[in-house]
Amino acid sequence: MNWLEAIVLGIVQGLTEFLPVSSSGHLELAKSIFGDINNDGMLMTVVLHFATALSTLVIFRKEVLEIIKGVFLFSWNQETFFSIKIILSMIPAVFVGLYFDEAIELLFNGNLVFVGLMLLLTGILLFLADRAKNTNREVSFKHAIIIGIAQAIAILPGISRSGATIATSVLLGIDRAKAAKFSFLMVVPLIFGKMIKDILSGDVADSTVPFAELTVGFFAAFFTGILACKLMISLVKKSKLIYFSIYCFLVGLSAILFLN
């Protein structure tokens, strides 16, 4: 891997982590077009995910600090309730990851019709969410579980995690800005958990990526992630999800009609 490849990987990770276009679906399409993609080991993947998780924490640093302070007051306050909602939202994805990991891996095997159909589903969700009326409703405990189920389903290739969780939140009548904030914060613990799992698996130790390329990739993903996160929050507030809906429809149909 050279510096240019590291930068490209970082930019792609930073964009697809926040924009509702399905990074897993695009990876499967890229494999079909360009052949199997090798990122020189698990370490680069871990570093890039850490970069986007960190960019999320930077964007929502005030909210995160308030949550931490509230939790350490050891009282039933608003921050404690928000933390519990985040935990509840994680349960479905953790359950799917633990018990259906091998079955899901089989879907990441060049099944472009399936990927295309899931991209169409993402497009439909974004279209419906774009037309939904905005409210001032907060995320409830029940909402957190439903949004968590959407996040678990988004493990499938072709379904955007951010698209599924934000669209589900908006369709539940949650305020758009609060829906975006909850969607981005709820995935951070899962990213760190996945990073720890990958590190403990021993695959990271087999990486051959030089430190310079890791550094370049990290900063590319970090700064791109900050820009993409801000852009996505702005577009959700302005009800501009229709652009991504059209994009998912076009890519999904192309995958079904032309890439098989």
What distinguishing features does this structure have?
260 residues, single chain, 77% helix, globular, mainly alpha
Describe this structure in words.
The protein contains twelve helices and no strands. With 260 residues, it is an all-alpha fold. Helix 4 crosses helix 5, helix 5 (78-99) packs across helix 10 (176-201) and helix 7 (112-131) runs antiparallel to helix 12.
Query: What is the structural class?
Result: mainly alpha
Number of helices: 12
Whole-angstrom Rg = 18 Å
Order of secondary-structure elements: HHHHHHHHHHHH
Low-confidence stretches: none
Anisotropy-based shape: globular
- How widely separated are the two ends? 29 Å
Q: Outline the biggest β-sheet.
A: none
User: How much of the sequence is in beta strands?
Assistant: under 5%
In total, the number of domains comes to: 1
- The percent range for helix content is over 70%
Overall mean pLDDT stands at 85
Number of strands: 0
Brief characterization of the structure:
With 260 residues, the chain is mainly α.
Question: What is this structure's SSE topology?
Answer:
Layout: H1 3-18, H2 23-34, H3 42-59, H4 61-71, H5 78-99, H6 101-107, H7 112-131, H8 141-153, H9 161-171, H10 176-201, H11 211-237, H12 242-258
Helix pairs in contact: 1-3, 1-11, 2-7, 3-10, 3-11, 4-5, 5-8, 5-10, 7-9, 7-12, 8-9, 9-10, 10-11
